[in-house]
Design goal:
This protein is an alpha/beta fold and 337 residues long. It contains 11 helices and 13 strands. It is 40% helix and 16% strand.
């Protein structure tokens, strides 16, 4: 593998993944629109971690700009594409549904078309644990149906999996979908719980805790996610000769298609997560208890057995270690001592 396209490269996960590829001596072309969904300064600061390396080339392009995307794929011969760009956030999708259709559906179509016409060897793309929706069977298995999403964000991520499968079937494009479970860590997103909680606790303002903090999340440390993505990129899917159309397994196919969970397999109650953060900061939080929000699920818990078999690795960073790494980064980045 000599050249990789990473979309969403100024994003939280994208920066970590690009850095891992660059460290492995692989040429990375990074794409990002640098939109203003959250602080653009943070995105520029992430890019600064990558720029200056001879193996990194940044392109400011919107995925929905079809002409620019066509030129990008014509200009470069990508061996692999790691598609992480998306309009993120469950709650934001309640007020801004158009952003999700534009970025997550039309944007992914641009990627699929680019990969198809330039014979990319492997497309790895970000899905989400939110696709499991109202499925209450725990832990979530990639062999379970995921047909009842509870938010438009989740519906677009499930749609990405279906779109990828159609391209795998029609054009023999090898695709791998990765269902991320609540990713956190240094350089995280300001709209996510850990970032918001840390900021509020340090400022002495209350934090909103939904469903009395009784929801459980499979918090997954970002370095574990990056390691998994780099390993998965080496595992190009082939048609599964044992796939049975009478009893179809959603995670595999007669086409070169596969889907994996990436989670820590350690669901943590939100209140415990907050307690660990309080202990790390040495400050008690002021809690503002709120009802559960539309689109939220009560618990996420990843079955990663198929991923572990395929790549010989599964996430294992404890929330104590992960939160400490985040707090150390946060204090350093914002100059708080």
């Amino acid at each position: 593998m000599s050249k990789v396209l990473v979309t969403g490269v100024a994003g939280f996960i994208g920066m970590h993944v690009a850095r891992r590829f660059i460290q492995n001596g692989i040429q990375v072309v990074g794409l990002d629109s640098l939109n203003e969904y959250y602080d653009v300064n943070l995105k520029h600061a992430r890019l600064a971690q990558l720029q200056g390396d001879a193996n990194f080339d940044f392109r400011k392009i919107d995925l929905t700009d079809r002409n620019a995307m066509r030129r990008l794929f014509q200009e470069h011969s990508f061996d692999q594409v790691i598609h992480l760009a998306a309009q993120a956030g469950v709650r934001y999708s309640l007020e801004h549904p158009e952003a999700y259709v534009d970025s997550n559906l039309n944007g992914t179509l641009s990627i699929l078309e680019g990969c198809r016409h330039s014979q990319v060897k492997h497309l790895v793309y970000a899905s989400s644990s939110s696709v499991y929706g109202s499925n209450s069977s725990q832990p979530f298995s990639v062999s379970d149906p995921a047909d009842h999403p509870l938010s438009l964000y989740a519906a677009t991520k499930k749609s990405n999996e279906l779109m990828a499968h159609s391209y795998s079937h029609l054009f023999q494009l090898p695709t791998t979908g990765l269902r991320f479970f609540t990713v956190y860590g240094p350089w995280g997103r300001p709209d996510m719980a850990l970032f918001k909680f840390t900021k509020s606790i340090l400022e002495g303002t209350p934090i909103d805790v939904y469903n009395s903090g009784l929801m459980k999340r499979d918090f997954t440390y970002v370095d574990d996610i990056a390691e998994s993505i780099v390993r998965v990129s080496q595992c190009i899917p082939t048609p599964n000769p044992e796939w049975n159309s009478q009893q179809p397994d959603p995670s595999t196919s007669s086409a070169p298609y596969q889907v994996f969970n990436i989670g820590n397999q350690q669901p943590t109650e939100l209140l415990r997560f907050i307690r660990v953060l309080e202990n790390t900061l040495g400050i008690s939080a002021k809690l503002n208890m709120m009802p559960i929000q539309p689109g939220d699920v009560l618990e996420t818990n990843a079955d990663v057995s198929s991923l572990a078999r395929k790549i010989g690795f599964s996430p294992s960073t404890s929330i104590e270690d992960g939160i400490k790494h985040f707090v150390d980064w946060y204090r350093s980045y914002y100059g708080i001592h």
